[in-house]
Amino acid sequence: MKTLGIIGGLGPMASAYFLEQITRLTDAETDQQHLDIIMFSRPNVPDRTAYVLDNTKPSPAPFMIDTAQTLESLGADYICAPCVTSHYIFGEIQSAVNVPLINMIDETVAALKEKGCRKAGIMATTGTIRSGLFQAALKKAGIDFTVPGEERQSVIMDIIYNEVKAGNPVDMERFFGAADGFFSDGCDCVILGCTELSVINNGQLDERFIDALTALAEKCIKLCKDSVN
Fold first, then answer.
1. Is 117 designated active site?
2. What stretch(es) of the chain map to CATH 3.40.50.1860?
3. At what angle do helices 104-115 and 133-141 cross, to 10 degrees?
């Protein structure tokens, strides 16, 4: 088995849930059949959305590159960052290390393709929406998509930052209200394209919701379990 390195803390609750997902989804009957994982939690990394929206703001790149290089030096064979918005600087991080960085956006779109999704709603941070990362990957895969209007996006950001990140209870009525707008737009699935939204998933959402964090966890398990030292 290979060792997984995780750039964590972006945010902390999502990283904790990611570890839980990996543990739950791993086909293991003993402790020894689970993955070797090194997680470096760096909650002090500058806000990714703030940087995407305004490149004069502090860049998360130096922090994330330093973390990735530390994980590589500690023996990580694969590295991932369970933060969708951070994929805006994916190329910078990958070029700074000699081990593969697993792309959460690509794995999410692959999961959509396998599921047969025809039109996806993108529920994510404003930074991720503005970056166009999901839109480009979906277009390449031949999957139609829609993004929320300004009012609905404001609700989604409030849920992400003022509820999940702030450690407050999530108003599920508001969440489903925002999600229902995508289905009204003709979507047959909704991407939980922010790892804070993945925390909400925890058994409460039906199969129409495709969780980026789960897609990443499944790929990490496959790569590490299928590889033999």
1. no
2. 3-103+215-226, 105-212
3. 40
